[in-house]
Amino acid sequence: MKYWLMKSEPAEFSIDDLARVGREPWTGVRNYQARNFMRDGMRPGDGVLFYHSNCAVPGVVGLAEVASAAYPDPTQFDPRSDYYDPKSDPHDPRWLLVDIAFKRKLARTISLAELRADAERLGDFPLIRRGNRLSVLPVTAAQFRHILSLE
DNA sequence: GCCAACGTTGGC
DNA sequence: GCCAACGTTGGC
């Protein structure tokens, strides 16, 4: 079992949205490294820290889990979608996704600022590395436990 | 294969 | 809204 952190802009899709629908195909990832984590690393049941980005208080706001194996992201073939990719071949889809299932909301937001302040305990962590822009990234079991212990 | 230009991410 | 950091694109 592995652990991950997945970013979402709450104005687009928040932890409350996930709580309401229960389960969501993680559409729109258009970065190869993030895709590779979903395609090659994720297995159903893996733990996911749900992170709000590009908002007043960016941070971890909930707990989810990987709920499917990777499969092609349908939005890449939809010309009306913001995520349409005309260069993707339907016989060899470029973009994959997994379904994410809601587990619970955290009692409070564990902010990016707090995580930065705890950098020493967390060790090497892509989220708090300078200039990091990955929207899907791996978390070690120790980091996962530690972050939740801050709740 | 190099690299400048451009677009995007995302914190602040 | 600003801007640093980074990925992608395309000319050469």
Automatic annotation (TrEMBL):
Record's CDD domains? Answer: EVE
Q: Name one Pfam family in it.
A: EVE
Record domain EVE: where:
2-149
Coiled-coil residue windows: none
Q: Sorted alphabetically, which InterPro entries does this protein's record hold? A: 5hmC_binding (IPR052181), EVE_domain (IPR002740), PUA-like_sf (IPR015947), THYN1-like_EVE (IPR047197)
Top-rank taxon, per record: Bacteria
Report what the protein is called: Putative RNA-binding protein with PUA-like domain
